[in-house]
Amino acid sequence: MLKESEIVVETPKAAEAGDELDRPRQTFYHKHEAVILGGAAILLTMGVWQAFWAAGKISPLFFSGPSAIAKRFWDAFRNGSLASDLEYSGLNFALGFILAALAGVVMGVVVGWYKRVSMLLGPFLNAFYATPRIAMVPLIIIWFGIGMWSKVFIVFISAFFPILVNTIGGVRAIDRDLLRCARAYCASDWQIFTSIAIPGAVPFILTGIRQGVALGLIGVVVGEMFGGSQGIGFMVAYGGQTFATDTLFVGVIIIAFAGILLTALAERLERHFSRWRPER
Amino acid sequence: MVKLDIDHVFKKYWLERSANEVLALSDVSIKVEDGEFMAIVGPSGCGKTSLLNIVAGLLPYDRGSVSIDGKQVHGPGVDRAVVFQHSSLLPWRTILGNVRFGMELQRRFDENTMKERAEQFIKLVGLTGFERHYPGELSGGMQQRVNLARALASDPKVLLMDEPFAALDAQTREFMQSELLKIWSAARKTVLFITHQINEAIYLADRVAVMSARPGKVKDVFRIPFGRPRTLSLKRDPRFLEIEDAIWQLVEEKPERIMGLALP
After folding, report:
1. Structure pTM?
2. Fold of domain B2-79+156-262
């Protein structure tokens, strides 16, 4: 038998990184350079913008100023319309997105795994995927009316395709070497499916989720712009139609923050599930 | 006692592009004794990897038979395990999870036994302490140890090794060769080892079968007279060099040519 002392263990690549030791000491500024410079740029822009606005150089018909937007934001917050608009849009988005994620992953796995299903559905999926989903909004309104379900459906159809297409790609991108290995160990098709195809597809699915979040957000805004009387998208459209540029800006800023927040969440999820990857 | 009997095996490939049939294996017969370490050397394209895939049950063949303990094999089976050239580890599973993978697929052992065996073979290949690491964090040599541990843990009667060290650098390869001998002397399995490196085959094996290309045939089988345990200095022994030279002659290829061809 093998003696303990005879076993020589190589150092793993990961432990070799000695860069922690020779990294030079950093000042506070160097550590946070990006935040400091970025923050300064924002503050400067806001300051210049506000100065022009306060001096009356900007027509409120065409543009707005930081103080007016902040005031509008505060008013909307106070009278509760902001909360109810956010709730309405948030619910539309959440419902549509969850349905899209469920349907997209399940259908993607089926289409990716069964070649014949893929052949049958392929032409339809390709045609739909290539069509901008916004073009179908009028039809969707005919079907669902201008209530919340037309918005939910627009979010659904916007987020569904990127999730579906990425999931199909992930299930198909099964590693040949791993497949051969599993076969050599007498794996059944079901075992190959659960132990190789699905875990291997997870990073692809999460990429689809991230793209679906971005497109679903566009979907909810566009859906609310087309009809109805509630939600952040409606806020933007209404602000535009009544030349209330401050209201319009409040909506745009909320949408921008929602986009940043949701994309960051999706990226975190993606990183969490690919922590086994050597490069971080 | 003959453990693995490869008996008059023929394998043809149909080449789509040239609309041509190629005889990859022509009347190949190799008998491997129980507990024997058998190496097969030959230039690239001699069909040695096809032969291993046939024995593994991953590739159908046209004529002849492959049997283990006198029973003909059809398809993959729990009596064989393969150590692949590329480590073929699941990147999302830890080392422990990867060593368990073969056993989990074969469902021959209960949970406790699997746990014990995984620990036992991780220790045998010298990876204790790395159970929770992911393959991406390990060097090529360590990944091949996991590959080997996975195969041994599934308790095969015959261990099939498909150029397992070909992708490693020269130093790691030599080191892994001597490690393999230690592990093999502890595990005592019947081994069929494919390589294009003649000195690797001589150093490791009890017998070396030499194959030639187009069509793939066994030209001769050499019995390696050295006792065990063997050390790496054996590779400089005059008798070792004599056998190496004889095999070179038989392969009838210039060394540079073979090395060049054998690179992936």
Report:
1. 0.77
2. Rossmann fold (3.40.50)
